[in-house]
């Protein structure tokens, strides 16, 4: 599990296709990954991955076809900056909201508005995901726990403070940027339950 509080940006240093998967080599900032072990979970742009190799600050991850197709990691290239968060520990403060690292779909940044030192991102998502969106509800975007400001015809908006822009890849966000979307699990459970009950009653 993850908190949605991004801990920094890591850089892709190698993308190596190997039959039915891709091995990503990712370089982490100094002091952020030294105590990690093989088998540990790390979220990259919101995708939960398993550490399969370690060489100093460079960590190897195997990404299967399903993840490559459903997430933006399928488009990853050398030099890309990825948001990262290590799996939470039992005593960690949950400053955002609980995320599983299981991405539901990809969205696309439609517009970036400057709000003083901050930014307002308009993000479009597939129609099937829109019933789970609520104004002031939680959403995971590239692994960051964000609050939906408002809904749009095609998706939603989120506001980003300077701290978030500095710590994450959102500082370079522009129209057309593809982002990974994870729906809040409690929201999904409530919406699915209500829809199932209404369907059973023929409503």
From TrEMBL:
Keywords: Repeat. The keyword Cell division does not apply. Residues 1-97, 98-194 form the Lumazine-binding domain. The keyword Protease does not apply. Lumazine-binding repeats lie at residues 1-97, 98-194. Its EC number is 2.5.1.9. Pfam families: Lum_binding. This is Riboflavin synthase. The lineage of its organism: Bacteria, Pseudomonadati, Pseudomonadota, Gammaproteobacteria, Oceanospirillales.
């Amino acid at each position: 599990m993850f908190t949605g509080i991004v801990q920094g940006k890591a850089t892709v240093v190698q993308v190596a296709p190997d039959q039915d998967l891709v091995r990503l080599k990712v370089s982490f900032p100094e002091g952020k990954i030294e105590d990690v072990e093989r088998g540990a979970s790390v979220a990259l742009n919101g995708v939960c991955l398993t550490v399969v190799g370690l060489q100093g600050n460079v960590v190897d991850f195997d990404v299967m076809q399903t993840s490559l197709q459903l997430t933006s990691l399928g488009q990853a290239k050398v030099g890309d900056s990825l948001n990262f968060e290590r799996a939470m520990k039992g005593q960690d403060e949950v400053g955002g909201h609980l995320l599983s690292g299981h991405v539901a779909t990809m969205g696309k940044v439609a517009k970036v508005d400057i709000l003083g030192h901050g930014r307002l991102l308009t993000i479009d998502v597939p129609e099937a995901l829109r019933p789970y969106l609520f104004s002031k509800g939680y959403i995971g975007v590239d692994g960051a726990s964000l609050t939906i400001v408002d809904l749009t015809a095609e998706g939603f908006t989120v506001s980003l403070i300077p701290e978030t822009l500095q710590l994450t890849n959102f500082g370079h966000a522009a129209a057309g940027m593809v982002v990974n979307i994870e729906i809040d699990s409690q929201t999904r459970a409530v919406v699915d339950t209500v829809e199932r009950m209404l369907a059973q009653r023929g409503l």
